[in-house]
Design a protein that fits this description.
479 residues, alpha+beta, seven-stranded mixed sheet, six-stranded antiparallel sheet, 8 helices, 21 strands
Length: 479
């Protein structure tokens, strides 16, 4: 049987009898300082343990979100009509998508950039509009010429006023002219303006009546507008609700369309002027109520250098490039999936600088202050870098695309456009949260306690022996 004395002999923490210990004022002060030091160092270590630590590395792009990139945008063009606003996408691999409509929405906007109505319905675009024979050189004057002085008079007098806004230099206007004049002559013979007066076909030369064409938001030639007098009953200041005609442009089609417009209108009646036949619904769409357009939505593009272009586009209209103004205001432009606000706020607490370049162009405006006729194209060069964040404790992956932007206004010989040239970096930034082990925290706490205690003991021993030495010298003892 092992005696208790032998067991006590292995005690590493032997106690000094209380009556052999000596308390001193210096020792008490040193103990207080040591305790405060322990508390301070413990607080620092606890704060370090609770603080997120990250490491950043640059690696070859290893995207997990596929071969396509989502671009979200909300851009306002104060001087581009929704009637012709077109969004196109192209890339270096030869992809060309023109006039994308499936994933975008357009709203007519006023000078204050606020929508003036509901979503603008552009409708299906026909690329096979029928025209009259190109060799037909009919030069008769079947339609009335309108000016800014008599336009309101005629629009208030006739229940239906159909106006061809044209430009003499325009190829498509010249293609339409013979058919238009023939159709106008036929309709004038069938519905004499002096006797019947239910419909009148007219024309406006936009090179002479610039202000009148601007007032009706004409940006492409020829533009055929259908004005209905009956809408004046509901509108103030003589404003007309009107439509644009996009159907065939041969004589027979024009006459047939005019007949369907007149059919529901009894003589000397204006109440039914807003009615119409469904036969031409596909050829008629509401005309833009203002001269500006807001385009919002998203497109998916391949992860290769490419272009997103917004411009005025039509296969059967001409545009005066000197009158085109592509000034715009970017409310939102971002790449990749939308990150929930809560997730983004959590990530920003982890990495404060993250997200600053996620929407770099948001809230910026690009205005063409040059004289009309400068043919100014506004280009944006975007360098996109993907950032992935891997959180340590939840092992959650957050993907974000940040970009730098350089913009310029340049003169172009072609029709001005707003172009966003984007290029993705082949490298990506990987941010990893470094999780601190609890065992490491406990080890450091023990080290703090032991270290402070040991240092305090050494200082106490030095201080105590120094005081004893001083007392001996004062007593004159010899050593």
């Amino acid at each position: 049987m092992i005696s208790s004395g032998k067991i006590k002999s292995v005690d590493f923490y032997r106690k000094i009898p209380r009556d052999l210990t000596e308390a001193s004022l210096s020792g008490a002060g040193l103990s207080i300082v040591a305790a405060l030091a322990m508390m301070f160092l413990f607080g620092m270590e606890l704060n370090n343990y609770l603080t997120f630590s990250t490491s950043t590395s640059v690696i070859v792009d290893q995207s997990t979100d596929g071969d396509f990139l989502r671009i979200e945008f909300n851009i306002s063009f104060p001087a581009l009509s929704c009637e012709f606003a077109s969004l196109d996408v192209s890339d270096v691999l030869g992809t060309n998508r023109l006039n994308i409509t499936k994933t975008i929405r357009k709203y007519s906007i006023g000078p204050d950039l606020r929508p003036t109505g509901s979503e603008f319905q552009s409708g299906p675009v026909s690329h096979n509009i029928k025209h009259g024979d190109e060799g037909d050189e009919y030069s008769g004057d079947g339609s009335f010429s309108l000016t800014a002085h008599n336009f309101d008079k005629f629009s208030h007098h006739h229940p239906i006023l159909v106006v061809n806004f044209y430009a003499p230099w325009c190829y498509w206007s010249n293609r339409l002219k013979p058919s238009w004049e023939k159709a106008a002559k036929i309709m004038r013979e069938r519905y004499d303006p002096e006797i019947d007066g239910r419909i009148l076909m007219a024309k406006v030369d936009c090179t002479l009546e610039i202000d009148l064409c601007k007032r009706n938001h004409i940006q492409g030639y020829p533009s055929i507008r259908i004005f209905r007098k009956g809408s004046d009953l509901r509108e103030d200041h003589g404003h007309h609700e009107h439509e644009s005609y996009y159907g065939d442009r041969d004589t027979d089609s024009l006459v047939k369309t005019m007949e369907t417009l007149v059919a529901p209108i009894p003589l000397e009646s204006e109440k039914l002027a807003l009615g119409g036949s469904n036969e031409t619904d596909n050829a008629k769409r509401p005309a833009p109520s203002s001269g500006g357009c807001r385009i919002e939505g998203y497109v998916r593009v391949k992860k290769v250098p490419g272009n997103l272009v917004i411009s005025a586009h039509s296969g059967t209209h001409s545009f005066d490039s000197s009158q085109m103004n592509m000034s715009h205001y970017i409310s939102h432009l971002s790449f990749g999936r939308t990150i929930a606000p809560k997730v983004m706020s959590d990530v920003k607490r982890l990495i404060p600088y993250l997200g600053r370049s996620h929407e770099r162009l948001n809230g910026r405006s690009f205005i063409n202050h040059r004289d009309v006729g400068a043919n100014v194209t506004i280009e944006h060069y975007l360098q996109i870098v993907k950032t992935e964040v891997i959180t340590g404790r939840s092992n959650k992956l957050i993907e974000e695309y940040e970009y730098t932007a350089h913009s310029s206004l340049i003169q172009s010989l072609n029709i001005p456009v707003a172009k966003f040239h984007f290029e993705l970096s082949p490298m990506q930034v990987l941010v990893t949260e470094n999780e601190k082990a609890f065992s490491h925290f406990i080890t450091n706490v023990c080290a703090i306690i032991g270290g402070v205690f040991t240092v305090a003991g050494i200082l106490d021993s030095i201080l105590h022996n120094t005081l004893r030495l001083v007392k001996k010298v004062e007593l004159g003892k010899n050593f």
